[in-house]
Amino acid sequence: MFTRIVNAVEVVAAGIAIVFVVLLFSYRPVKARSPYGTTTAVPAGAAIYADRCATCHGGRGQGGIGPKVGGGQVVARFPNEADEIGVVTNGEDGMPAWGGTLSPSEVKAVVDFTRSGL
Amino acid sequence: MTAEAGLDRPTKSAPAVRLAVAFGAGAAISVALGTYGRVHDPTGHALFTLFFTNTLSMKAWLATVAVALGIVQVLSALWLYGRVPWKASVPAWLGDAHRLTGTLAFVFSLPVAFHCLWSLGFKAHWSQSRVFTHSLLGCAFYGAFAAKVIIVRSKGLSGWALPIAGALVFSALVAVWCTSSLWFFTHVGFPSV
User: Fold this and answer.
1) Residues 6 or more apart in contact with residue A37 via CB below 8 angstroms
2) By residue range, what is the domain housing residue A83?
3) ipTM summary value
4) A26 has a chain B CB within 8 A of its CB
């Protein structure tokens, strides 16, 4: 009886693994709509922030898994904008590098948004 | 004598071939996962967080459960091989229990791996040694796991093959945990659900 249960669990596990593999290739999230639109540099940064950064840094930059970036916090930490661009591009210990995903102009846009829009 | 040796040769080489196939398949799976993570555009999203407050908490805790089940795997394997310090007979259910804990550890690892690959991708930046190491080990874990499953299902392999494969799987799992969940608990907080 126990053997049959374990066999059934193995079949279910294989099914779950297959579902995840299919999702890897088939599922793309619906892009979050930004209230700022996407026509200028800062609004484009807002959209990128909502899409890529808000999960860890909070929707209003209040922090979460990642540190607080809103309310001028990020400017205090990175007085030089190039330093923040470097971190976003190359990552830090807990933060992924976005340089391979976002273009330099997109990185600049999202950095501008964190410095003036949050 | 020569004829006998000639007849023996195919049956002796077959286990080695099966072993090579097992580790070759494992290596292929590791490379495939790494390649997917590298070429796939990371979504930066969470597909689900279950009852956890965020994705990282979910990943840290599910990985921790997987490691705990992995420890049960090691202990039950030692028991099955008669390597426990106490003189205990092997109960009939132990083999199935060993399979069950291994299967559950695999299941608990799946949401973690999915979000690593789908949401973040394979990070190959030398400046981020922890993340890079974690990416490599994560891919290696599933390769080792696949090799172990093939070895378990193969008959007539050397006695050392399965323990070695099991040790590789457990070592990779613990190393993956140390470079992710342990970092999370020591840098973000513990307990953090």
Assistant:
1) A43, A47
2) 41-116
3) 0.86
4) no
